[in-house]
Amino acid sequence: MHKLGKVGLALGGGGAKGLAHIGVLQAIEEFKIPIDIVSGTSMGSIIGVLYCAGFSPREMLQILHDEKVWNWFKIDLFKGGFVNLNTVEKNLFKHIKHNEFEKLKTPLMIAVSNLHSGKAKVISEGNQLLKWVIASSSVPVIFTPVEINNAHYSDGGIFMNLPSNPLVLNCDTVIGSNVVADSKIDEISNPKDVAERVFNLSIIQNLRISKTYCDYFIEPPTLVDYSMWDFNKMDEIVQLGYYAAKKIIKKKILPDLE
């Protein structure tokens, strides 16, 4: 695997669809492709922090089943007001048991959006690890922005949903795992659909740029049929990620290593 050099893996945001990253990681492990550094946005940062803390894809899947991940993000848009992600933070801390970037087994970079400056920010050090993960996962309008060091941060997907460009300076090879398709949709029937579509449209714009930084790009095509709220379909989504990654690895990455 030395031909790949130092390998970086970018895990994009996408709500429940981001659970496909678990399947991607499973395929990567099966083919023994070494990952030297991970970057993540939103759900990509949640999966990323668990992986970098040392949890295998199978262990992650078990944790999310046991903890009933669909309850972590349970919201009711008709109640009004913002919802925080304290439950997610508490559950992550229960398993990771620390709050420092430097204690992770694999280096992690997290993309967030600074609501004051209107710019993306990438964090990779310090002792507020899980706060940055939550900030990166706080979809605007739905989840409360997170205040850190007197500034407010929201979902990294606003400016950098697939954080591949920060990896370019640190890696020889960049693999991107994207779960938000650049596609049309036929039906918008409720406030959740509206929120998801508006957010996805902003994501698609920066995704086109981020894709150019990837040497290899993984995107499960049938994820377009799922919503960012489909946490109850976790096993299906994970399998889609696994099969998509396996196909790219066998078709493109392995031949490049021969």
Short summary of the structure?
By secondary structure, this protein is α/β, with parallel strands linked by helices. Helix content is 42%, strand content 14%.
Q: How would you characterize the overall build of this protein?
A:
The protein has helices at 20-30, 43-52, 57-66, 69-72, 86-96, 129-137, 157-160, 165-168, 191-211, 234-257; strands at 7-11, 37-40, 108-114, 119-123, 146-148, 151-155, 173-177, 216-218. The relative contact order is 0.21. Helix 1 (20-30) packs antiparallel against helix 3 (57-66) and helix 5 (86-96) runs antiparallel to helix 6. The chain is an alpha/beta fold and 258 residues long. Residues 76-81 have low confidence and may be disordered. It is 42% helix and 14% strand. The longest helix has 24 residues, at 234-257. The chain contains 10 helices and 8 strands. The chain is globular and about 50 Å long. Strand 3 (108-114) and strand 4 form a beta hairpin. Strands 1, 2, 3, 4, 5, 6, 7 and 8 form an 8-stranded mixed sheet that branches.
Shape: globular
Number of strands: 8
Order of helices and strands: EHEHHHHEEHEEHHEHEH
Which class of secondary structure composition applies to the elements? alpha/beta
Helix content: 40-55%
Instruction: Return residue spans where pLDDT drops below 50 for at least 5 consecutive residues.
Output: 76-81
